[in-house]
Amino acid sequence: MPRFLSRLAVAGTAAVLATTLTTPTTVQAAAKPAERTRALSWVAMGDSFTAGVIEATGAETEPRDGCARTVESYPEIIRRDLGALTDLRNVSCSGATTENVRTAKLSPLGRPLPPLGTDPNAPYPPVPPQIDSAGPDTDLITVGIGGNDLGFAGILKDCVELGATHLGQGTPCKDRYDAVLPDRLAGLSAAYGTMLTELHAKAPSAKVITVGYPHLVPEDADLCTYGDLLQFATVSTGDLAWARTAILEPLNAVVARSSADHGDTFVDLYPASAGHSVCDADRWVDGVLSTILPLTYGLVHPNARGQAGAAAVVEHAVRGG
């Protein structure tokens, strides 16, 4: 059994014994060394899809540092599920790239709040590279990253603007970005591999679990309504179909390949989130807005249901499933 799973099992056995045995017995005495075993040391890394960010994933965790980690993000859900079995350091941060995991500090923007559009407490001091939270005693690292390396937020913004200019016709966003995406994906592949190599060097005993991205666009882009702010606003149907096949699915493929090359576990959120895209009735991902009245941003990010869905799949991997 891997060391991190052995520690999880031992801690769980100790917790059960501690709560069910109330008088000194031989079994209870034998359990005392297990009770002294430390909890699973887990570092959760990633970008806004890990951190939570939007109001639809609850209040921000304390202390606030601008990264906009929320109480209903999947690391925090799993933290509550595992309780004393794990010691979590959640250093995920909105806007993070692989460089912000590896070497670069990040100046986080906080949570955008209408009507000003920016966090009233910004600017925040820079946060250190996420890898700094890992070390020789780390048992588990989860990392969900890569979308910002491709510039996904900027592409989405341009798709909204171009779709409005072209009245939802054609594929103006594809026409602008299709030629540059192969180089961006190749760059991400190299950066992701370097990141995993450095994570293993920093935490040589840790199991590394990489987390992909969920369905944002449905398999049938015609399900999306042009101009709906609760969906993709003015992105054209053609550009939505292109974004799914040219950005989102290749992004997950890069993460999966790099994970396999490094012997790491890839958690694929795509199957579980099928039928729960921005444009589906039971959506796990909110659109440009989460609600119109009151006005709250969704920013095309997982809502509480999406984070709970991710938590179920990631926790299964954490437990060795």
Can you offer a commentary on this structure?
The chain has a 5-stranded parallel sheet with strand order 2-1-3-4-5, with helices on both faces. The protein has helices at 3-20, 26-36, 48-51, 74-82, 98-102, 152-165, 172-177, 181-202, 237-261, 270-273, 304-318, and strands at residues 40-46, 86-90, 140-144, 207-211, 265-267, 289-291, 296-297. Helix content is 41%, strand content 9%. The protein is globular, with a radius of gyration of 21 Å. The chain is α/β, with parallel strands linked by helices and 321 residues long. Strand 4 (207-211), helix 9 and strand 5 (265-267) form a beta-alpha-beta unit. It has a single domain (38-318), classed as SGNH hydrolase (Rossmann fold, 3-Layer(aba) Sandwich), CATH 3.40.50.1110. It is built from 11 helices and 7 strands.
Short descriptors:
11 helices, Rossmann fold, single chain, 41% helix, 321 residues, alpha/beta, two-stranded antiparallel ribbon
